[in-house]
């Protein structure tokens, strides 16, 4: 055996020769081992050798084995260990490399080695306390070749120590198997790194092999096979647990404290625990933007966070999710007086999105079970993995949900579907399941009154359809309340459409009408329609498209995800089609485009996360049809002609709703715009990047493999990356469009093609501006047709594609607006001409809206006087609107100065805005309220809101004159403008949100608190209810969710929320103290007595306040604001905060302590909401941001930096925050730099948080394993 190089006195060969001679002599004389060891120690000390000596261990083992081996040698080695002249760990490593391989030849030596190992192997404290600890570990690494075995480059002592212990165990296991001739049964013979679950599986399998077959083990009196099996089960559970997030937020608090936030509920706690779900669902429903990200993914991540933080069971988590979705439906069910009711979107959220969230959670659990089964011991592995516990938890949650009858009443328009679901269960239980097909075609009058279904029945049916439940749910107590003989046995007069289709019937007009009106109930039915849409004749394809756009899309909740995926696939063919092929499919494509363009349908696509995939298909359609000249029209089956411009406009206006086309993409970056979790992306490039990522990453994980089984095998999308360069015409238009809205256009160059198009448009639409081209003028002057048809004829004559028309429109608008400003064109003629242009090419609305927005921002136009002569007058309603805005805000707790403009006020709007509003007023609501007005209305509202007061009230007043039934909605929309330039109003609204939710303040209108007080119960804007002041009240949370999108720079929101949160903590303690009954109050021990405050109640409400704070920051600004909050706001607050105090020292300490815990929850939850708690593509950014915050905490603890906050606040914050990370998001820790973790653990030890410091290192991965082992050993030795 090689002896390492010696240093200092140890380099003298004569010293070691003398040591070995002394040893030989002692062996010959059979000297007392104690005497030998004492004399040897004195000899080494006199030569300045540091004890225990690494070199001595090498020399003794080399000397004893095997030339001088004997019983005396083992006695000498034992005394050398006991007198600390050799390191026991190194000696055992040397012996393991020498004795174990020779155990067959030297069985006595092997037995004595085992005795020595039993006595010294786990005396680890002496190892790490040795003066030459690092040198000992380096030597062990060299002896056992650990760096090679574990493929490691560094040599951290703690890691070597762990590897040493495991290597000894592994060696003994293989030796035991080999001794009983069992080693050949094991497929792996090399040690592996057991931090990896798959390698732990190898170890466990070998242990199970030993347990099952070892005769020695069965006859042993020291340990039984059963005990060893039990040990292996614990190891297997422990390793499995390491790969999962802890489900209990058992927060370790400051030294001496016993507070734990999880596991107790008081009053509305059960409701408020899931408040973030209510918020994200409400935001997803009401957001004006179209989200590029799946609501399923976002809500699933949110559920995981809340499940971990609340320490709840999954059935409670699922119950909270269902109740939040039901509350969403109830808030919307009775809405009236709104432009577009959102009930279809609400029902999609409840019965499709939420059901898919549950399915994803179940799929993830079962994919983990599959992975565990693959690496589990052979004798416990099952051929088919058992179903996860979450399925049973789902059953429990749905059974409990049946008790919430007040939430289960369906909206009237969906009563038929609810009754059909209840009747289906009745028929099934009667044994006549074949008759269930009848129900789809019954009218509501056909069903008995006792067969009263509700939303519970629809939810259960949605779960059964996705194989989350089976039909045993029909037998739940109280699920059905009628007899089967009450259900009519004969079919209704309608044709049983879907059954006929599945039997092969042709798509006759009558059958198509039935299938359009009746949603499909199974994937097979939708697949049949998809097959026809891809392989049928053109007429059959058009019929199939019509069916897909019917009830199956908006009411087919059990198959909705399949329907929209098939529709997206039809618009995004796998093989890029040729131009001629797309053109031949114009009618078919147009049916799909119109069918999905309603607000509810686009929102449904958005919620399912299919907008990026749909966008790529729409870009290709726009590319082709926008390049076609309008000289040919196709005749639709209805007899109407279909032009290329119409197909282009339908695709183009749908596509442009997917991002804020009226705002330059660079503007979002410049003004630090909010990036909410369900907000739109800034540009089409981003949509394509998201699309490419989704398709490239889909199906890689085990969870994706399970989820993929839920979808049709017939569906596929092209996985090749798609970039803007793939669509040169569209890309060219987009670049010109961006230039148009950020800079002044250059003048027209005579002779260019666009110049001729501009002349034609001006001559046809605005004849008074200038003279027209002779030939064109003559062709139009004698015609009695409308300007729209004349323009059509002129464009056909020019043979101009839509892209060229769009290029010319900004110049036309500039000339027309200039002419109007100089009196050469009347305002009426301007509005009429704009409407004719929009009717001719609806795609021009995009350019019109963007142009007017850009011109308002430039601010170079004189105002337009809204006096009834030049422009429409708002005088009839303006004063009333301003009063109602003030009263409406007052119902939310926001008090603003008088909004009425005093004096001789002349209502004005910027000229471009006046023209824009006049254009929107020309639309007839009974015909054009659909896709085109929906496209430009949000732009008009945002533009008016960005202008000085009272521009938005003026716009609202004009629209109230047009549609009086929308007055409440329009007043509500106008009220949001107040917050655009009034930060004090924003702060008041945020305070009102906290007070209403937590039930704080005697002046609060909603002092009972809870989700209902925060978001309302369904009474407010759009609901037929009025206050004594004559306005419809609005809940503060509802208004708050609408306000953030009007705030350019949202960074100050996080700062204000921190301040409000800390004030809320103070109010909670004060409120609890004042409201408590003196006879029921009792002292609560928390290290020392902290007054008569109910600590349990206070801590629960503090957690709810932090939940609300984190939710508002995340929803209002997304990851961007959360990042700023953690990196900037929180450190600054600790350095500048003033101490919050109440009367009395104990109360002040309580406020400070609870404030620290509130901040801990606030920061942790904000990060968890933004980046999730699992490994994902966001892990890198999350690790960077959280690493900086960990570093900040560590630097304060280790460098003793002075902070301005109360010491109790800081201590509570640190212990609470780290405890939450360890308990709820342990995966985050492995993303933090190792040195930061080690520094933070040292700081925690200074706070006397030894156990918390150890848990932090335990979760740090391989990099902190050594430090964790050393700390655990030191901790065990200390106590």
From TrEMBL:
InterPro entries: MED33A/B. Keywords: Membrane, Transmembrane, Transmembrane helix. The chain crosses the membrane at residues 1150-1173. It comes from the Eukaryota. This is Mediator of RNA polymerase II transcription subunit 33A. It comes from Stylosanthes scabra.
